[in-house]
Every structure is written in C-alpha cells, then in structure tokens.
Amino acid sequence: MIRGWSIARRLFLAHFVFIVALTAFVGTALFIDARDRGYAETESRMLSVATAIAENPLVLEASGTPDPSALLQPYALSVTQKAGLDFITIMAPDRTRWTHPTESEIGRPYIGTIAPALVGTPFTEVTTGTLGPSVRAVVPVVDAQGAVRALVAAGVKTSNLSIALTARLPAVLGLALALLVAGALVTSLIGRYLRRVTLGWGPEQLAQLFVYYDSVLHSVREGLVLVDLKGELVLYNDQAAELLGIPSRPANPRGAAAPTLGELELPAGLGDLLRSGRPVQDEIHLTRTRVLVVNQQPALAPPVSGRGKPTPMGWVATIRDHTDLQSLGSELQSMQTLSDALRAQTHEHANRLHTIVSLMELGRTGDALEFATRDLELGQLLTDEVVASVDEPVLSALLMGKFAQASELGVNLAVEATGSLSDTGLQARDLVTIVGNLIDNALDAAMDAPAPREVRLSVRSGAVSVVIEVPDSGNGVDPDTIDDVLRRGFSTKEPGEFGRGLGLALVRQTVNRLGGTLSIGRRTGAVFTVTLPCRTPYPEVSSVRPTGRTDAHDA
C-alpha cells in the first residue's frame, strides 16, 4: 500500500508521526518539570514555615513547661490555617507529639524521620504519616547552649499538591497543542511543495523513470541537451558531448557539479541560443568541424492534479549532425550540375548534328565540314584553357560543368589560375566543396542583377597558401549581414528550396577544418575570398569511379 504513495504523502505521514511523538515527549517533559518544581517550591516553603516556628521564643518557652500542648496546640492550629498547611507538629526530642490537627494524636509518637534534626540539621522529605503521604520539613528547636529542646514538622499532603499541579495542566496542554498545530501546518506546506516538485510521484516511480530516461539518452542517435532556467546543463547524452566537444557525463552524476554553458567552449551563436531558451526549428549552427541542425523547445512541468498552468523548468535542445549529409548534398548538387550541363550539351549537340546533316543533304559539304571544324576548335579551346589553368582533374571536371551551367543561365564565367594545386596537399573533395558552392552562390547572385552578368574564379597557389577568390556582378552583401553570413550561412533563395542556406555554411565549416579563413568584400558585387594553408601532400582515395570516357569536345 505504502509503495504506491507519493513522496509528499510519505513525508507528511512521517513528519506528522514525528510531530505527535515530539508533542507527547515535550508535554510529558513539561508536566514532569512542573511537578518537580512544585515539589521543590513546597519543600522550600515548608522549610521556611518550620524554621520560623522553631525560632519563635514561645516554642522554646513552652518546651520547658509541664504541659507544652496547652500553649502550643492553639498556636499551631492558628499558623496552620493562616499558612495554608495541612499540619504543624511540634514534638519532644523523643517523638512525643505536643501538637497535631487531630486531638487524639497528641501524646502519641511522631511518624517520620527525625535523626538529622536531632543533631541540629533541618531537612525535608516526602513520607506517609497519619494524614497520608505528605511533603514536610523538620527543623530543630535549640536553646542558648545549642541543645535540641524540641522539633517542628510542617507539611502539606501530596493530594493537595497534585490538585495545585493539575491547575497547571491547561497551560502545558495548550503549549503542546500549539506545537502540534504548528508542526502539522509546516508538514502540510512541505507536503504541498514536494507534491508540486515531484508531480505527485513516488520514489520508486521516479527511480524507474530516471533509469528509462537515462537509457533513452544513451540510445538515441541525436544529441539531447537539457538546460535549466539558470543556464546550467542538467543532462546531456554522449552524442551531444561528441557534437559539442564537451566532457562526457560521468557514470554516477550524483555529487558532480553541473557545468554551466559559460564554462564550455561553444560557438557564440550556439551558446547564445542554448542560454536564451528561444524556440527554434532546424536552425543551422557551425562549429569548427561540423554543421549542426538544432531544434529547441521549452521544458514545461505539467500542473499537479491537472489544474493550473504548466510551469517552465528550462528547455530541451536536440542536435543533429548534418556535416556528412551536407557533404553528400554538395556532391549530389555537383553531379546534378554536371547532369544538367550534359543534358544541355546533348541538346546543343543534337542541333549541331542536324545542321551538319542538313548542309550535307543540300550538297553543301564544304560548309558542313567548316561548321564542324569550327565547333570542334571552340570546344577544344575551352577544354584546353580549363585543363591548362587548373591542374587538378576533379576540379577541372567541376569547372567544365559550371561553364555549361553558366552558359545556360546567361552568365559569363571566367577562370584564372596560377601555380599548381597538386603540390598544396589539399584534397580534391575539399576544393570541390569550396569552389562549387562559391560559384553556385555567385551564379545565383549574378542572376538577380541586370546584365552584363559575370562571375570570375581566381585560384592562386603558392608555397605557403592557396587563395581562392570569387567575385560576381550581383548586388553584393549587405554589410549588416556579413557577420551573420560568416556565423550561420546565408541564402537569398526562396524558402523551401533544397539546401537553402547550407552552401556557405558548408564552405565555412570546410575552411575552418582546414585552418583557413573566409572573408567577404565588395567590388561591383560581392567578393568571397578563401585562404587555405598548404598541407603536406598525402594520398587521396577518390569516392567516384569513372563510368565511361568522354571526348574533349563533348565535355
């Protein structure tokens, strides 16, 4: 039964039992203290009364007469009534009573201890006499020579003392009741707080949920990051640690201080996003080596018992690595460019073939031969120029496709290259990623500007670095957006187009990985300049296998 109880209910019951036990203990302690203090006060009062009587000269004088009771009995009864006592017994040193509230007890021996008083020491005791249990004090009556001539005993029955003590019980019970009410109130407030923060769940359920959630965090392929309202990392999985370059979570997180976002070396844009809690969907962020797509939503605690509004507890972000996907997308886009170029050349080649065939059918063989020769020379000249200027065959093939694409779009593409790329140690795949995306971005910018539409590519290879420069005749980049372009990628395409905003992001990621720099300037239009340090040449494995041979004039 208790196993299904919430933490709040368990704590309420335990705290309530504790308060009841504490109240009983405190009440008992107060009662015992009041009783002990009552007895101590009574003993002190009895001792004072007995001492006052013993010092009265009348008692010493009467003790020497033949009938002490005749003088002392009226005196003892009077003092007993005025002092509110139950008895005053004046006796001879041999215990013979001279006074007593009951006349028949006079002359009989006193019941109780007298030995300390016989040697001159007053004392108090609780004992049972003829009137029942009583608190009494016994004081000696001494003469001028110090001899004990009589003894005085003054006392109050314990039954009367209990009645006086009972009169104090309401105060003791009131204090205990106040303690009980205050404890119950505090217990109720603590219970409500725990019910709110634990959502009414029990410890077994919370432990089970923690195990499930921890298993989920380790099993998902995406990075998951949970941030509280103070900007501290509450939880993150191994994939998030790998993508963000932060330390992995310890196997036992209890007792380990949670790092704050300010302590982690995150890119400025990504760190600001995680700290702000701003809801986003598929927002692109760059690290030095990765292209990350981030989604972020607030984490809301459901209201207890289904009433009220959800309470914000922080926010949760999912992080996906799109580096490889975008690399594949860039390669796919390059292949699509080559495919479009081949389709356009096929269409153009068919037109030229029809022209040659028609000239031959008309008997104008010389004109047909001259037309074919001139067309071959122009195609070979373009191929020779590209191959001669760029000694990287994969990059040359890309540029041939870009020439065809630019021709189809009505944009004049010019290439200028100096030096040798084969000695720089840069991989062809990285060069294709950078040059291909920069030319695509420049072609899009040139298409949005009035004629003449021009794009130029300049590649300068040196002993230390390679400089790639791509100016266009477009409208340029707004200076206010340059920082945004370099931080997260930039696109002027319409929303919904494939790869929107990822081309420049992929260029920036590749440049950062290679230790280079990317800057944006302006001439007629925008000028993108990439500087890459030369690397030690190493073998490169191509991921594209040739499927056939293409003549130079058909490229």
Automatic annotation (TrEMBL):
Parts of the chain that traverse the membrane: 12-32, 169-190
Cited Pfam families: HATPase_c (PF02518), sCache_3_2 (PF17203)
Membrane topology: Multi-pass membrane protein
Cross-referenced PROSITE patterns: HIS_KIN, PAS
EC number(s) recorded for this UniProt protein: 2.7.13.3
Recorded catalytic activity of this chain's protein: ATP + protein L-histidine = ADP + protein N-phospho-L-histidine
PAS domain: residues covered: 216-246
Enzyme class: transferase
Subcellular location: Cell membrane
Keywords: ATP-binding, Cell membrane, Kinase, Membrane, Nucleotide-binding, Transferase, Transmembrane, Transmembrane helix, Two-component regulatory system
GO molecular function: kinase activity
Keyword check for rRNA processing: no
Highest taxon of the lineage: Bacteria
Family matches, as InterPro entries: 2C_sensor_his_kinase, HATPase_C_sf, HATPase_dom, His_kinase_dom, PAS, sCache_3, Sensor-like_sf, Sig_transdc_His_kin-like_C
Protein name: histidine kinase
Species of origin: Cryobacterium breve
